[in-house]
Structures are given as structure tokens and as C-alpha cells.
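User: C-alpha cells for both sequences below?

Assistant:
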Amino acid sequence: MSERVARVRGALGSWDVVVVLALVAVAVVGALTIDGVASPRFWRFVTLEAIPILLIALPMTLVVITGEIDLSVASVVGLTCTVMGQLWVSGVTSLPVLIVVSLLLGALLGAVNGLFVTGFGLPSLAVTIGTLALYRGLAYVVLGDRAVANYPPSWTTSAIKPIPGTTIPWMILVVAALAVVFAVVLHATPIGRGLYAMGNNAEAARFAGINVRLTKFWLFVATGATSALAGVFWTLRFASARADNGSGIELAVVAAVLLGGVSIFGGRGGLLGVVAAVALLGVLRNALQLAYVPANTLTIITGSLLIASVVGPNVAAMLRERLRRRRSIAPTVSPTT
């Protein structure tokens, strides 16, 4: 019985549960204090904003768990949008073809990142900062300052069409299916255990027979492909392909991953907390917008949450370790006779 109680206490004290409870608290307080938060329209906008962020955050979670990072995702979104727009202007009018080409492009861009990181042994932070600028520059080469916005209404409405009987866009079902796939891979397969091993000690993972380089390479490919899918959704949702599409989304993605409990140093974290963090940031941002909070203040709040997500778990772990040490060295008091 005591073991069960300990497990329950451990689960309730996990960072994932903290984020979920924070999400519930923000939603309830917002619904009670801000007009419009409880409306179906509010949750529709929250979902529409969350879709591209969550799409990218799913593989990004796995990348960060291995001790790497990809900051080029927003530029992959922008470049995908411009290539999709240029193909449309050039006469490619089949949406399935455009989607397939976009996914292949995203996978190729991710493969470039993976090649530099795993093939040449370069740090992912430096590589993806470089490709962040490179891919965004290529986006401006493709379209310049032009915008392609003459897509058929059937395309643009299909991207945000609600699930029958609700106001929630159907695309969230695709994201949910991908979330299940990534969760199973991370938490229920040897591949997932290997990812945690890489994040904790890559050299030990190699000695254990894990192909660290190849695994990380395919993670970057997956991140590029999902970023491209986010670019397709972005283009259709706003009915516009521009070179600056997706600018700044990498901050929201990284903030959600770290706020969800994934350690920036790798080896720790899970998808439940990340999904809850994406929803938390979306609800908080949209609720504050309804409360007429300035955009600059929203950016400050997002940055503050990003810092807190890095510092908070480490401080909590430090305090728990100190408490454990004090308990272990506490003198045992024996009854006097």
C-alpha cells in the first residue's frame, strides 16, 4: 500500500501534472474574469494557433531529449510557403502534389541540418542558427516581397473546416494522431529508450549499440517534414504565401517544449507536458489579447515562461536533492532508558 501511495504522490508531483493543472487553472480563471474566453469561438482560435506549434513541437521534443535543438523550423515554414506559392503561380494546381512536394522539401531541409550535425559533428545550435538565416533568405529569393493569395476558396476553407457539430478545426485530428504516434515511439519502444540514453550519455549509448548519428539524422528529417506540413497549413489558413510566414514561431515551439518539462540538456521529458504547454501558452496568449494586453507584453510573458521553464525544474530538483541528503544524514535518535 505504501508503495502505491508513493507512486501516486510521485505522479501528482511530476512536472507534466503541474503543467496540466496550470492549464486548467488559467482556463477557469480566464473564463470567469475575461469576456469571451468561455465562448466556442475563443477555443477555435486557440486550436488554430496551436496546430502549427504542436506539429513542430512533437519531433522537436525528441530532438531536445537527445541533447540537440533545431532553431531553423520557422524558416522551413516560410520557405515551404514560398515554394508552394511559386509552384501554384507556375501552374501546379493539384493540392495533393503541392503537399507532397512541400513535405519532401521540408525533409530535405531537415536532412541538411542533420548532415551538418551528425556527419560533420557540428553543434546543432550553431548549425540551425545558420540555416535559420539561410532558409529565410532563400524564401525571399523565391518570392521576394510578393504574396501569393489567389488560392481556391475550397482549399483555404478545407484547412480550417470544423469537425461536424463543433467549432474545432478538423486538422487537430491529424495532429492528435501524430501525437499518439510520437508518444508511442518515445514512451513505449526501444527507440524511445535509446533517445533518453543519448540525451544522458551519447558515448554510453554508442557502446550500448545505438546508432546515435543515424537516429539524430532522422529526427532532424522528421522535424523538417513536420515544419513543412505546418507551412502548408499556415498558407491555407491565411490564404497567403509570403516569405515572412512563420516568423518567430520557433520561440513558441521551444518555449512549449521546455515549459512541458523537457530538459534543455537532454535525457528528460515527455510529450504529455509538451502538449499541455502548447495549450497553456495558447490559452494564456489569447486570453490576454482579449484583455487588451499589448503585444510587447505578451512577448515578455512568453520569454519569462521560457526562462522559468528552464530554471524551475532545475531548482526543484536541487531542492529535492538537498532534502534527500539532509534526511539521509539526519542522526537517528534512540530512546533513553
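Moving on to the next sequence.
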Amino acid sequence: MKQKHTGKVILAGAGPGDPDLITVKLQKRLAEADVIISDRLVNPLIIYEYAKKDAQIIHAGKHGYNTASFSQEQVTALIIENALEGKTVLRLKGGDVAFFSNVLDELIALKQHEISFEIIPGITAVSGVSAYTGIPLTARGYSKAVQFNAFNTNSYFSAEKWKQLANSNDTLVFYMSSKNISHLSELLLRFARHPNTPLAVIEQATTIHQQIHISTLKDCVIDFISKQFSSPSLIIVGDVVKLHNDFKWFTCNEAGTVFNELENVK
């Protein structure tokens, strides 16, 4: 007899770090979930404030370059195992659930096991970075479009792709790329992006730990020669970076209150 699956899985984005940036729908689902499987980029204050008291919390963080972290296969197995036990499972991801995320693997597994699911979007990291640094990704007279990429040791772009990126006037955003910033800048320069193109690296955006580092394509290798950027970090390349000094508004003090609350309950 075919097993009847009574569990449900909610795939949700928890936003870029500031706990006030979660959606109302996620807040409701946090209060309903029996099991919360959280990645390492989720602000724990979100779970502390909104999860029901008897919820099981599983921290299943994946971390690039760290073989000791959870694999996607292990995370997917946890989701399926708990859902098949009839539980409401909330898979909580930093940023948005499907923006540079492995949600497809999880969706495929849920369909294979005939488990019902719901997807709740979240504010992706680049939206948080743009807002909290005063760098609009598109702005009249600066950029008409924006391109999103990830550049790491597993990335491969053809010469034609690099030529297209380098010769574009678009704002370029690179996820998961700060460890490879020297190689990234070298490739953009090789394919004729202007050497004085502004570049920003933003660490842990929207949180009390937010740090912004401004340079140019030609200078960033020297400027950041001994810098180890904290994860998550995001890179913005383009003239819109020039707007930061005029429109920056967020400081660590803006986020200090809510993060101090978390420290008080540890």
C-alpha cells in the first residue's frame, strides 16, 4: 500500500541578516513548524523570536571550502526524513530561497517523495546590500541594467562571457566571490573593462558587522592584499559604487539594539 505523506515542507528565505527584514508569512510559518532546518547565514535571533517553543532546531550549515560542513545531500535527507514522519518542516535559508541557492535539489527530492511544499521568498543579499550601502544597482546616468553572477573555484566562464561582462556598462554583482577577487579583477581587466571602474566589497550586509570596502579594478589587488573577507561577502562592480558616499545611511549602531538583545539571551 502506498504510504500517505502527511508532512509538509516550507522552503523559505530569511533575508540578508537584519531580523526585521523577514516577511510576515515567514513569521507565521516559524510559529507553526515542528522542525526548522537552518543554514549558517540565518540570523539566530529570527528563530529565537518567532519559532514555537517546542520546535526542533537543526543547524545544517553549508560552507564553501569547508569539507566538515553539511553537504546538500545531507540537508536534503534531513528534510525528507522529517517530512515523512508527518512533521511540518521549515527549511530556512539566508537571503532568498532560490537566488544562488540549491533549492532545485530539494524540490526534486520533494517531488520524488510526493511531499507537499510551499516556497516563501526572502530579500536576497544583493537587495539588502544595495539598500544598506546606498548603492542603487541601476541609476539614471550610471547604469541601466544589472547582472548577477557567482565566481568561485567551481565557476567556468568562457572567454566570450568574460568579454561580454568586461565590455558591458551594466552593474556587475558577484556572489560567493570575495576569496577570488584578485582573479576576478584580473579577468575583467584582461577583457578591457576600464581600470578605474569602481568596485565595492560588502561584508555581512544589514547586520551590526557590516563593513564596506571601496576600491577600483586596478587597485583592489593591492588594497585588499592581506584582507580576509568575512562570509557572506558580496562584490559590486560599476559606476553606481560612486553613489555610496552621497547616500550611505546605515551604521552598526542602527542594528545594535536587536543584536544586543540576542547576546542577552545566550
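User: Anything stand out in the second?

Assistant: The first strand starts at residue 8 and ends at 13.
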